[in-house]
Amino acid sequence: MNLLRTYLADFVSLLFPELCMACEDSLVAGEYILCSHCRFNLPFTNFHQQPDNIVARQFWGKINIEFAYALYYFQKGGKVQHLMHNFKYNGMRQIGNLLGNMAGGQLLGNPAFKTIDVIIPVPLHKSRMRERGYNQSTCFAQGLAEKLHAVVDDKNLIRTVATKTQTHKSRFARFENMQQVFEVKNPGLLEGKHILLVDDIVTTGSTLEACGIELLKIPGVTLSIATIAYAE
Asked: Which ranges carry the Phosphoribosyltransferase domain (predicted)?
């Protein structure tokens, strides 16, 4: 019976092959979401080994953070962009969990991340949440939490204003666009915590900065940041 199931699964995979979400090559037995080549050869930043990395420098002189990190470099037209498109717009939320596990595996080796108490994803506005059906940052947070043995809180930090796209805005315009957009509903639950704030992609850091400003108003909070990708 098991042999028959194997033959049937192989036959179905010939007709409807599962594809790598980054390069679209067919996956082989034992591969999941990413082919082996992409899993090991996408452009890792190795920022977990660099306290003064590019992402961290985005926040110098703006908000006080312990550490900042991104798993991949994002290049327009590259495999990471294709992976992120599948994640955000094609309903492939399991991509976030996988990438969170991968990022968490790297961060386990950094002492700064051993004290994380709670992981907070950058929230979507409720209108965008209804449209998309899920928050990609929450999926990433859940994967991270499995590795870092922390809890995910995706209810406390909320987005009160539905902002327009940031894509073509300057850094200052992006920051202006994010002012008074976020609110912490129950600050007392986060007092004295080391919070890991997470998002999918960081460019100028304006969204994360706006979230961080609100979180750092809470007594005793320590803040670190992690994202899936860094885009210049």
From this structure: 140-227
SS3 of 163-183: the string is CCCCCCCCHHHHHHHCCCCEE
Specify the DSSP element, H or E, that contains 11. Answer: helix 2-15
- What is the token pair recorded at 98? 């996988």
C-alpha distances out from residue 53 to 46, 68, 123, 227, Å: 9, 8, 25, 13
Residues 117 and 145 placed together within one structural domain of the fold? yes
* pLDDT per residue as tens digits for the range 100-111: 999 999 999 999
Q: What's the whole-model pTM score?
A: 0.87
Instruction: Give the count of domains, the chain.
Output: 2
Sequence-distant (≥ 6) Cβ neighbours of residue 215 within 8 angstroms: 120, 157, 184, 190, 195, 197, 221, 223
Same domain, 88 and 100: yes
Give tens-digit pLDDT for 148-192. Answer: 999 999 999 999 887 765 555 555 555 555 667 899 999 999 999
Q: Is 82 in the same domain as 195?
A: yes
Q: Read off the pLDDT of residues 30-75 as tens digits, 9 standing for 90 and up.
A: 999 999 999 999 999 999 999 999 999 999 999 999 999 999 999 9
Calpha distance 210→157 (Å, rounded): 11
Domain extent at residue 6:
1-41
The residue among 94, 190, 103 whose CA lies nearest residue 148 is 103
